[in-house]
Design brief:
mainly alpha, 2 domains
């Protein structure tokens, strides 16, 4: 018996209602069956801890106390648009928020990545967005999580390949510089051809990584955009190859063979190459459009939910 309280006095909380009885109570069962979900929580609970349904006929502290005159209902809750009426855990909502922010940063970074002056900022936004998508990869099903992990592997392979390719190209150029002038031009052209072939191979890995990164988040129009970005990047690389290769031999020959060396053709070729890089606007904007489609689908709640029961509250 609690001192200072009259017989039959009661206290009540959100999930558990405890009635403190002074004298004369009768012992009851320690559990009660919820009429909604069928589970059997402790009889001291006023509401089912699994579904929130008020429990009728519950016993409190092992005594029969009758029907409570006042019942505190569960607090009203509003859930994000990607739910289907089932309470979603904080951990899952955090994953969804990370992915939503990540794909938005991917869209922004890709949209400005082709601009020479701020391309570094675009690359930084893409990097941060990719990290957020990786952290939230479990939010949209097993297929998306698998695709993201495969994309990470492909991207790492492409990154390692890019470093090896750059090192090989610089080594070839250094070797060509030590050759006689008549052989240096052909050695530089050969090194450049090898660099472009290597770029195609590296681009396949990194391009497929980009496709897989967003694939499970996209509908048909979004998938068309991401594939168009992938294909157009190789078309542009082919155009660069066709334009540059035909002029590279003469430009290098003028620089190595002439006396004094004439660097004008090489400078003109470099300016032309910088102009051709502006063609990257096409694949970059297509990739940005695909990322925006993924972002819009998340915001509108059109992304399929993750299978299985929600995570426990975090």
């Amino acid at each position: 018996m609690e001192r200072g309280l009259p017989d039959g006095a009661a206290t009540q909380c959100f999930w558990r209602q405890e009635l403190i009885v002074g004298r004369g109570g009768n012992g009851l069962a320690s559990t009660v069956t919820c009429r909604r979900c069928g589970r059997t929580p402790d009889a001291s609970f006023a509401f089912c801890p699994y579904c929130g349904t008020p429990l009728s006929g519950a016993a409190y502290r092992g005594f029969s106390v009758g029907t409570p005159t006042t019942v505190l209902p569960p607090a009203a809750a509003s859930y994000p648009p990607w739910t289907t009426g089932t309470p979603v855990s904080y951990a899952r909502r955090r994953e969804v928020d990370r992915t939503r922010t990540g794909v938005l940063l991917l869209a922004a970074g890709s949209a400005i990545g082709w601009i020479p002056v701020i391309s570094i900022l675009g690359g930084l936004l893409v990097l941060i967005g990719a990290i957020l998508v990786i952290l939230g990869r479990q939010a949209f099903g097993a297929a998306h999580e698998r695709n993201v992990l495969i994309a990470i592997v492909l991207y790492v392979i492409g990154l390692v390949g890019a470093f090896l390719l750059a090192g090989s190209f610089l080594s070839s150029i250094e070797t060509a510089a030590s050759l006689p002038a008549t052989e240096a031009a052909s050695a530089v052209v050969s090194a450049f051809d090898g660099f472009l072939i290597g770029s195609v191979i590296v681009g396949i890995f990194s391009g497929l990584a980009t496709v897989l990164f967003l694939w499970a988040l996209l509908d048909l129009p979004g998938k068309i955009l991401i594939w168009a970005s992938f294909v157009s990047s190789f078309v542009i690389l082919g155009v660069v190859w066709a334009v540059i290769t035909g002029q590279l031999g003469n430009a290098v020959a003028s620089a190595f063979v002439g006396s004094p060396p004439d660097l004008g053709p090489l400078i003109a070729l470099d300016n032309q190459l910088n102009s051709l890089r502006l063609l990257d606007i096409l694949p970059d904007l297509l990739a940005a459009g695909a990322a925006y489609v993924a972002w819009a689908r998340i915001v509108q709640g059109r992304i399929p939910e993750r299978r299985g029961s929600p995570l426990p509250p975090g």
